[in-house]
Amino acid sequence: MASRGTESSEDFGDGRYGKELFEPEHPQEAERIDAAAQAYDPITLPRLRALGVGPGRRCLEVGAGTGTVARWLLDEARVDEVVALDRDTTALAGLGDPRLKVVAADITDESLRPGGFDLIHARFVLMHLPERRRLISRLAHWLNPGGWLLLGDAVELPDALDTSSVYRRTMDAMWQALKSTIGTDISSVPAYPHFLREEGLRSVAAELVCPPLVAGDPLARFWSETWGRMRPALVNTGRVDATVIDEAMAYLGSPRLAELGPGVMMAWGQRS
Length: 272
Ligand SMILES: C[S@@+](CC[C@H](N)C(=O)[O-])C[C@H]1O[C@@H](n2cnc3c(N)ncnc32)[C@H](O)[C@@H]1O
Known about the structure:
- By secondary structure, this protein is of the alpha/beta class.
- It has a domain at 17-159 and 184-210 and 261-270: Vaccinia Virus protein VP39 (Rossmann fold), CATH 3.40.50.
- Helices cover 34% and strands 19% of the residues.
- The protein has 8 helices and 7 strands.
- It has helices spanning 29-50, 68-75, 132-141, 166-182, 192-198, 218-229, 231-236, 242-252; strands spanning 58-62, 81-86, 100-104, 117-123, 143-155, 202-209, 263-270.
- The protein has a 7-stranded mixed sheet, with helices on both faces.
- Strand 1 (58-62), helix 2 (68-75) and strand 2 (81-86) form a beta-alpha-beta unit.
- Helix 4 (166-182) packs across helix 8.
- The radius of gyration is 18 Å and the shape is globular.
- Residues 5-10 have low confidence and may be disordered.
- S-adenosylmethionine is lined by residues 17-18, 33, 36-37, 63, 65, 68, 86-88, 106-108, 123-125, 128-129.
């Protein structure tokens, strides 16, 4: 049996985020990432504030996406430096600030030596990378004394009474397709606090927040766009067909929508 945090490679396909799915060249990719950021930033940013992020800090934003968190760290928290790292940095091009260092790199590249940080944040990145446990260890080792590691990834609390709605079937097909194509796995997210302790961090804690899923809001648009983009992979799971996906996407835009959507679980810890 796999121990906590380790996975058999047989569980995953060979694909990678940004190649087999969510190609950065897609005209709607930045908009899709931004829609999720609009929903989850109001959860992430107060947590960063509570960790005392501010002037004098050097920060690493892993998988920076469109840079909404990096921009907040610079403009609102007034930190000294943000290293915004992503495998594709196209969407970060507009963020002109002398305190911002944009790094186009794969976080799994073992040769990366980005230096020490007072804050490292990664949201909706590690869940997509099969190497997540080893990466948590590397990120923890890049912390300066007193530095914080804040990880945010998805957790779902599915309605146990619903196994067959178009919403449930499409959401389940999505997690299965993400896992088999690029290795996404959210099953170990609730174990992140333990992983942070195993890395010797202190003041470890975690919280889970599920933002409201409301028709027409950015988050509903995010899931609809995500499902639309994954259509062939969803059908390949055998759980849904084109009609179910269409109905599920229509449901996300309708006043009938009544779901507890996926939440972000944030886990944090501090280097002594
Ligand atoms: C779901 S998006 C999240 C973006 C941002 N963190 C946010 O929450 O708004 C995942 C981001 O991680 C980046 N990413 C995925 N795999 C990566 C890797 N191996 N190395 C660096 N960045 C990666 C993607 O390019 C994308 O920008």
